[in-house]
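Give me the 3D structure for Blue copper protein 1a-like.
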Amino acid sequence: MACRQMLAVLAVAVVAMAILPAMARATEYVVGDDMGWNLGVNYTDWARGKVFRVGDSLVFRYDPENHNVLRVSGPDFQACNKVSAQGPLASGDDAVPLSSPGKRWYFCGKAGHCESGQKLVITVLPSLQAPAASPTPTALVPGSSNKITVAEYQSFMVVLVAVLTTFMT
Ligand SMILES: [Cu+2]
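Predicted structure for Blue copper protein 1a-like (169 residues):
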C-alpha cells in the first residue's frame, strides 16, 4: 500500500522534526582537550572552529599547584592584568557554565603564565533553542496569532499526522 508507506515516511519525518531541537544538547568542552590547562598549549588554535553556545560549559583541568583560572575583561586579557579578575578557580577540575552570549576571557594567574600564552578567549553564541532562532510557520495554523511556539507547531503536526493516519487506514 503505497499510501500507507508514504504516511509512515511522513510520520517519521514529523517525529524527527519534533525531536531534533531537543537533541541540540549542551556540550562540555575540556579546555586544551588531553593537554588540559597548561603552559605550551595554543588555546587560540584549540578554540578555532569550535562553536560555543549558551548552555555549554568549559572544563579547565590542571595541576592546582601550578595553575589556576582567572576570568578577566578584554583589555585586561590583552595586558595579562589580573587586578580586577574574577576568581581564581583553583580546584584543578573547574567546570564553567557558559550562561550568557558574548566574549569571555580567561588566563592563568600564576606568575608569567599568561605572558607565556596560557590564555583563552572565546565567543559564546546564543542557544540554538532561543525562540528567535525557531521557525514560525504561521500559515499552517489559520486564525492563530503570529506568535506560535515551536511546541505548538510540533503538537499541531503530530495531531495532523494522527488524523491523516486515521482517515487513510
Ligand atoms: Cu599556569
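The helical segments are 2-19, 43-47, 74-79, 150-168. Let me know if you want a second pass.
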